[in-house]
Write a structure and sequence with these properties.
Blueprint: H1 2-16, H2 20-39, E1 45-49, E2 56-65, E3 74-76, H3 77-83, E4 92-96, H4 103-130, E5 137-145, E6 149-153, E7 158-162, E8 177-188, E9 191-197, H5 201-211, H6 213-217, E10 220-228, E11 232-239, H7 246-251, H8 256-264, E12 269-274, H9 279-286, E13 294-298, E14 303-308, H10 313-317, H11 322-331, E15 334-339, H12 340-377, H13 383-391, H14 397-400, H15 410-427
Parallel strand pairs: 2-3, 7-9, 11-12, 14-15
Antiparallel strand pairs: 1-2, 2-4, 5-6, 5-8, 6-7, 8-9, 10-11, 13-14
């Protein structure tokens, strides 16, 4: 049995990649569990496996005491001295209790523990193998699909491709070979779980690294990627070597390099632009194939106004605003595009508004100066007398009288009023 056991451990290590030490630890733990269940033994049981001969021994460890209260855990000092005169109280003695037959329950328990340890070891091996591919690209084979996921075989594990991570309108058939970007690797209770994507912008970056050796070597660097999966993408590149053209290097001879990436992504259009330290030049390049006349920045708002020729306005904006939207994602600026004629009209309106504002300001200043001049010429002391003269009306008995302060008394005024009322009554 020992030879067969060692041979089985060797085969398990070759097929599953599980080391002998892991299996031996699992076997020892399984035998301890099975022995305790079958024989009701306490927790002082040890199991030793001989990796050279394959022999298994079970020991009960007991403490040397004066008075024995539990024979499973303790041994009398007298019995200990019979075994060896060097034993003292407090020493631990190992007694071999290897059973000849563990029984069906014990064997089943040992099997379950071993299988559990083997599964855990396999999960750890798979997790450690695929965690290094996180944020990297892998090639897999489409196996099956359901309402939520498409399952891609990556070798030792099935990765899941959700609908959100798929390229729109791309059809996947069983046995199709596709390249996917590993977004996340998790070690769950059910085993390792790998999540992949076909729409992630970094998939495009990894594909360029595979197809363009200069990018992999670091001579050409990808600065930014903006992508609308399945339709169009923009890639900004720069070169660390002044003798190397970054755009031409990525395109390749007769467009072979970029065409291989387009084929892999089922015809997704690709714009490769050169990155520049000058933001205006960078934005102009990002709006390719449209030509840019002028770029004005608003640093506080993080936006820019781009002026293009009239006949290139639709080209700069793109279908459903796609070109401008991708350029904004690529550069990080909010891009507002106007034609030259619209810009001239806007400038004319702004100029007219500035003229009107200036004229209004001049009129306002003139009015203020006129008021100030009037204030300087008017004699404030004459205003009450002038108002009094204006308020006087002909026929008013009081006002017609030569009423001045000191000339008429109050009785005179009353008599004058009564005589006036009598005259009015006779006239009626």
């Amino acid at each position: 049995m020992s030879k067969e056991m060692l041979h089985a451990l060797d085969e398990l290590e070759k097929e599953k990649g599980i080391s002998k030490e892991v299996v031996i630890d699992a076997l020892e733990a399984a035998l301890v569990s099975a022995y305790k269940r079958n024989y009701g033994q306490a927790q002082n049981v040890e199991v030793q496996f001989d990796p050279k001969k394959g022999n298994i021994h079970v020991y009960a460890v007991k403490e040397v005491v004066d008075v024995v209260y539990d024979s499973r855990l303790e041994v009398d000092i007298k019995d200990a001295l019979e075994l060896n005169k060097a034993y003292e109280i407090g020493d631990m003695i190992r007694f071999e209790v290897t059973p000849k037959n563990f029984g069906r329950i014990a064997a089943q328990t040992a099997k379950q523990v071993i299988m559990q340890r083997v599964r855990e070891a396999e999960r750890n091996i798979i997790y450690n193998e695929y965690i290094q591919y996180e944020n990297d690209i892998m090639q897999g084979i489409v196996e099956r699909q359901d309402n939520r996921y498409i399952y891609v075989n990556l070798g030792k594990i099935e990765a899941v491709l959700s609908k959100q991570e798929q390229i729109p309108n791309e059809v996947y058939h069983p046995h199709d070979r596709i390249k996917v970007y590993v977004t996340k690797v998790e070690n769950t209770s059910k085993g390792p779980q790998v999540f992949v994507s076909r729409s992630h912008p970094n998939l495009l970056k990894r594909l360029f690294e595979q197809e363009v050796p200069e990018i992999y070597d670091g001579i050409v660097e990808i600065i930014s990627v903006a992508r609308e999966a399945g339709d169009r993408a923009k890639v900004a590149v720069t070169s660390r070597d002044p003798n190397v053209d970054p755009v031409g290097t990525c395109v390749g001879p007769k467009g072979q390099r970029v065409q291989a990436i387009v084929n892999e992504l089922k015809g997704e259009n690709m714009d490769i632009v050169e990155w520049s330290e000058d933001p205006a030049a960078y934005i102009a390049n990002a709006l390719n194939p449209a030509k840019v006349v002028d770029v004005t920045f608003n640093e506080e708002a993080g936006s820019c106004l781009v002026v293009v020729p009239d006949y290139q306005l639709s080209l700069a904006i793109g279908k459903r605003g796609q070109n401008a939207r991708l350029a904004a994602k690529l550069t990080g600026y909010k891009v507002d595009i106007k034609s030259e004629s619209d810009m001239e009209d806007t400038q004319a309106v702004d100029s007219e508004l500035e003229t009107l504002a200036a004229q209004h300001t001049e009129d306002y200043v003139a009015d203020v100066e006129e008021i100030r001049d009037m204030e300087n010429t008017i004699d404030i002391e004459q205003i009450p007398q002038e108002l009094e003269d204006q308020m006087r009306q002909p026929g008013d008995p009081v006002m017609d009288a030569d009423y001045e302060e000191g000339e008429l008394s109050s009785e005179d005024v009353e008599e004058e009023i009564e005589s006036a009322e009598e005259r009015d009554a006779k006239n009626e």
